[in-house]
Structures are given as structure tokens and as C-alpha cells.
Write a structure and sequence with these properties.
CATH topology of the largest domain: Rossmann fold
Distance between the termini: 25 Å
Bound molecules: 5-S-methyl-1-O-phosphono-5-thio-D-ribulose
CATH architecture of the largest domain: 3-Layer(aba) Sandwich
Radius of gyration: 20 Å
Order of helices and strands: EEEHHHHHEHEHEHEEEHEEHEEEH
Length: about 375
């Protein structure tokens, strides 16, 4: 079977003949299922920055669709090709700075820029090429998620329990997710699988999003506050940990949602295998180690208030990194669309990225 028996939520789609996009507004979930239209550069930047769309692969897809939609709008104004190229540079700059850690954002923008640099034609023709490239990125992501799920499902036996952090599911991608992909693949094959979802302070991607998409798919999910994970590992440990990533350094160090590193430490302490699942578009060979990955720090009010009333006195200082680095020694394996990579990671990650690029070039 190549698609799940439940409707996976469409995270983004074209609207108005490809001059705007409709996103599922993830800030409203799980209470409200509502799409929001993005038409201007500010709309796209705001949606990425404020996590209306989030998850590294989906951030990249959104930027690509945004660039192409803006190019189509400019083409309708009959701008010259040179003017389109100049505008593109400004849009790419703003979008590329919307969130710093997810490397898929820069990866997708680089692909569209390369496509523009290699082409000649009218503004309309250039905009059409950009839209094709955005579609290609979206389609590839769907296929990469499926392949990651198939590889990683071989690590999962019938009846096993998975622990995950944040949301690296279908809501974070253009397909069935990364960390949750093997769960879906196993469920499609009729295997029973249970998931423990860390709540994921402060923005609750685990309780709001992972629990929403898994329960919608009929998969057993148990939510725990992040500080309860130690108790779970000590009393009834999960069989395996699957997490996603925003950026993987060349040596296999992993940036992912804040709280991933303590989960890896717990898994190590309790002998639970800890896997990172991500497409090759998340591997940044330009970052030799995790220390070279920029970490986003977010608005202190996300900790101070969360989604409701004041939880912390205004006078208190707030520490609020959005991501942490899990050193590669704590990672049992990294699953990309090209297979399961084992330590040492340097050679096999570089080879996987090179193979993915070669395959793309050969069409
Ligand atoms: O801040 P977010 O919600 O964008 O963080 C998302 C994550 O940390 C995910 O685990 C990661 O982007 C991988 S999504 C397939």
C-alpha cells in the first residue's frame, strides 16, 4: 500500500492559480482545523516565523511555494526578467532569515535560486520554472518521508512502544512525516504500535500536534509532560526512540527541538535505541559539528505565558533556546531516505547527500 488509509492533513497547497498558498494553520490545532491564505512576502515570513507552518521539511516547502507564488504575481505585473531576478533576491533574503536552525529552508531557497540562475526567458517563463521546482521539492519530500518510514519500520516489532519528541509527523512535512513515518508504515501493515509523545514545552508540538495526528489516524498515543520521561524510562521503558531533526551536522550531531538531548541521555542510560529520522535535505555538510549549527532563541513570552495567563513573574529572566544539540555518540542510527546510517556517520552521510544530489541531477 502506498498511501495511508486515513486522510493525511494537507499542510500546504496552491491557491488562486498558483499566486498564493493555503496552509493548515498549526497554531490553532488541535481545537480548530482552519486554513490560512498566504499571498504577500510578509504573510509567508510571518507564517514561518510564528510556526503556523513548522517542521524543517515543511518550512522549506513553504518558502519554495512562497517564492514561486510571488514570482507569478510579479510576472502578472509584466516585470522584466531582470526585475524578477532582483525581486527574487530580496524575497529569498527575508525568507531565509525567518528561522535560523532548520537548514531545509536554506536548502529549498538554494534550489530555487539555482533554477533561476540556470534559466533564460520571460518573467512568466521563469515564474513557471520556479513553480515546477517548488512542486518537485514538495513531491520529493513526500517520497523521502515514505522511504524513511519503510527503512525505519524494519526497526519496529509488532506491539512495540515508540517515544518521540515534538512533532516530526505529517504536519511537519509534505508527506507522512519522518519520526512518525515508520509508525504509519507499521500501522498500515497491520502491526500494533503505541506511541509516547512528549508534550514538548513551551509550544506543545507533542501534545497539540503529534497527539492530534496520531489519534486521528487511530494510533494509540499517550502524552507525557517532558519532565515525566525519566519516570517512564525507569518504570516502563519504551522500546525505541524516534525523533526528527532540523539540521544534522557532517559528523552526525543532531539539532532538534529543545528537549531532544535529555531524551537521548535518558535513552542511553536505559539502553533504549535512539534513532534520528530525517531526509538528506536536513543534512548540512557545511556544518562540521553541532557547534556549527545556529540555535534559534525565541520570544521569552513563549515560556513566560505559553498559551495563556502569566506563568512566570515578568521580572524573571527567561532562557528559551528552541533547539538543542544531541551529540552523535548518543545516536544509535540516522535514517534518511537512502537507508539506515550507523556510526561513524561522516562518510555515510556525505555519500547519502552526494547520491541524492546525483539522482536529482539525472532527473
Ligand atoms: O519549532 P518546530 O516546531 O518547527 O520544531 C520542529 C522539530 O523540531 C522537528 O522535530 C524537526 O523540524 C523535524 S520535522 C520532520
Amino acid at each position: 500500500m502506498n498511501h495511508p488509509p486515513w486522510p493525511i492533513p494537507e499542510t500546504i497547497r496552491w491557491a488562486r492559480e498558483g499566486t498564493s498558498a493555503l496552509i493548515l494553520d498549526q497554531t490553532l490545532l488541535p481545537g480548530v482545523f482552519e486554513e490560512k491564505e498566504l499571498s504577500t512576502l510578509d504573510d509567508f515570513v510571518e507564517a514561518i516565523r510564528n510556526l503556523r507552518v513548522r517542521g524543517a521539511p515543511l518550512i522549506g516547502i513553504t518558502a519554495a511555494i512562497g517564492l514561486a507564488a510571488l514570482a507569478r504575481q510579479s510576472a502578472a505585473e509584466r516585470v522584466t526578467p531582470d526585475e524578477l531576478r532582483a525581486r527574487f533576491a530580496g524575497w529569498a533574503d527575508r525568507l531565509g532569515n525567518a528561522r535560523p536552525t532548520a537548514v531545509n529552508l536554506l536548502w529549498a531557497i538554494r534550489r530555487l535560486r539555482a533554477c533561476l540562475d540556470a534559466a533564460d526567458g520571460t518573467a512568466g517563463e521563469l515564474a513557471a520554472l520556479l513553480a515546477d521546482e517548488a512542486d518537485a521539492i514538495h513531491d520529493e519530500d513526500r517520497r523521502m518521508c515514505r522511504a524513511i518510514g519503510e527503512h525505519a519500520a524494519t526497526l519496529l516489532a509488532d506491539g512495540e512502544a515508540v517515544i518521540t519528541h515534538c512533532n516530526a509527523g505529517s504536519l511537519a512535512t509534505g508527506g507522512i512525516g519522518t519520526a512518525l513515518a515508520p509508525v504509519y508504515v507499521a500501522a498500515e501493515a497491520g502491526r500494533k504500535v503505541r506511541v509516547f509523545a512528549d508534550e514538548t514545552r513551551p509550544l506543545l508540538q507533542g501534545s497539540r500536534l503529534t497527539a492530534w495526528e496520531l489519534s486521528r489516524a487511530g494510533i494509540e498515543v499517550t502524552v507525557l509532560a517532558d519532565n515525566m520521561a525519566g519516570s517512564l524510562f525507569a518504570t516502563d521503558p519504551p522500546d525505541i526512540a524516534f525523533v526528527g531533526s532540523d539540521r544534522i551536522a557532517a559528523n552526525g550531531d543532531v539539532a532538534n527541538k529543545i528537549g531532544t538531548y535529555p531524551l537521548a541521555v535518558l535513552a542511553d542510560r536505559h539502553g533504549v535505541p535512539f534513532y534520528v529520522l530525517a531526509p538528506t535535505s536536513t543534512v548540512d555538510l557545511g556544518a562540521p559539528t553541532g557547534a556549527d549549527i545556529p540555535i534559534e532563541h525565541r520570544d521569552p513570552d513563549e515560556v513566560r505565558r505559553g498559551f495563556g495567563p502569566l506563568l512566570t513573574p515578568e521580572a524573571a529572566r527567561i532562557y528559551s533556546p528552541a533547539f538543542d544539540i544531541t551529540p552523535h555518540e548518543l545516536v544509535t542510527g540516522i535514517v534518511t531516505e537512502r537507508g539506515i546510517h550507523r556510526p561513524p556517520y561522516t562518510g555515510s552521510l556525505a555519500a547519502a547527500v552526494a547520491e541524492a544530489e546525483a539522482e536529482r541531477r539525472s532527473g
